[in-house]
Fold:
Amino acid sequence: MTGILDKERIIAGPGFNRWLVPPAALAIHLCIGMAYGFSVFWLPLSKALGVKEAIKCGTDVGFFAELFTTTCDWKISTLGWMYTLFFVLLGTSAATWGGWLERAGPRKAGVVAAFCWCGGMLFSALGIYLHQFWMMILGSGIIGGIGLGLGYISPVSTLIKWFPDRRGMATGMAIMGFGGGAMIGSPLAADLMKYFATSSNVGVTQTFIVMGLVYFVFMMCGAFGYRIPETGWKPAGWTPPARVSNTMITQRHVHVSKVWGIPQFWLIWMVLCMNVSAGIGVIGMASPMLQEVFGGSLIGVGKKFGELDKTQLTAIATVAAGFTALLSLFNIGGRFFWASLSDKLGRKMTYVVFFVLGGALYFGMPGSAATGSVVLFVGAVCIILSMYGGGFATAPAYLADIFGTQMVGAIHGRLLTAWATAGILGPVVVNYMREYQLGLGIPREQVYNQTMYILSGMLVVGLICNLMVRPLADKWFMTDAELADEKRLAHEKVAAAEVQRGGGVLGSSAVAVNPAFVMMAWLAVGIPLAWGVYRTMQSVGKFFQ
Structure:
């Protein structure tokens, strides 16, 4: 079994079609992307014992007591710690095991990710059945979080090596899948819980089991679909850009062990952290923000949020849910659009657009709210969220340009600690500023104004850091001897083989992959994604109604 997972066993042979690698990456990312959609479980889990109404814990039951209690239901605020754990563990595990991934190969990392993510869900299912929250924390939060990190970075280095001519587009396709995971998983989970629910059971345990098993099949298929090119492979007819024509794209390589000491790494770290902090803060408050800012005008009623009755509050909550679904589409679409565009604009210029345009939109949002223009306000948030997703998808290609491709997956893993930081920083700024403003007696429709200016300032910081990024000095790159040694440790062929078989142009002795097989691979991930878009569009329709 170990031999099947070895990196030497997944070097692509003659006739391999590089377009088989993106659907393999998507198969994994669409599964682990459900981390974004775990909030669909919070409400049912908050009444797992009471079913109809939650059995509330006494005032003497604190957080640690909730981990082990079997007599009362968990609070939604307690369940929310799962979400925090996901992204903290994603960043830390990617940083910790990124170097191992480069040497072990994407298949072995993908298999480990499948066992961690899906095994964590099954262990959590047992925890729900026994009503032991510590088992959910350990299962999905910690073990699943490790699977998230490994699964997230598993295809990065491989895709960049298969698509040196379109680095941004290649990573954009995979990371788009991570954004799309919740779009499939959330409605699927809702349907399954409805199917399994009874008068004495909310149906979450069975839903976790079914989804864990389905995800395991998809993730294993994705892991076994990974192939890596031979050393020196390049697409037919493509010539690497000369250093003199584009000094921001290096042809050399940096070892992952050196990146903590390189100023450019920390500049890009700040670039990602500021972009994600600003975007994730808005994502977390998108629904209440729209409701509180525009109130009754969302349903044609001339009343502020605090003046609405229960029926009207329910109506605007439905509109806000459609708004949140709309944002998920822009988040996903932006990952592919902006990452692909970065192949034309360059990575540095793409981030300049993110920060200049994003900063202007944040700064202008209070004015849009003051004039009562829902269209301008929603349009600004949609564009901002597209750039939030685009920032994730463009980052791996940016790293490959600056640090080379040999260990880009491991370096990307360390960069994701910026995401873990932003996952705490962004929501804290938005939530605490909102509470502070409310405490000062500021009307609800104005409590987000100062927050928008702060987020705009974050993007200014990101812009300055991005403008300071320069090509690396020679001292940071591996020597030829160090590179050869790293290739040996990574189980690669040291001798370059200029094999021209990209884009379907094969040698006369090659055996081409059947195009029908490539199409089937894309359909396997495309059909679930299309179903997720369809279900999301149904929710978006409620917003436009």
Remarks:
- The radius of gyration is 24 Å.
- The chain has two domains: 16-230+512-545, 244-480.
- The domain at 16-230+512-545 is CATH 1.20.1250.20 (Growth Hormone; Chain: A;).
- The chain is about 70% helix and 0% strand.
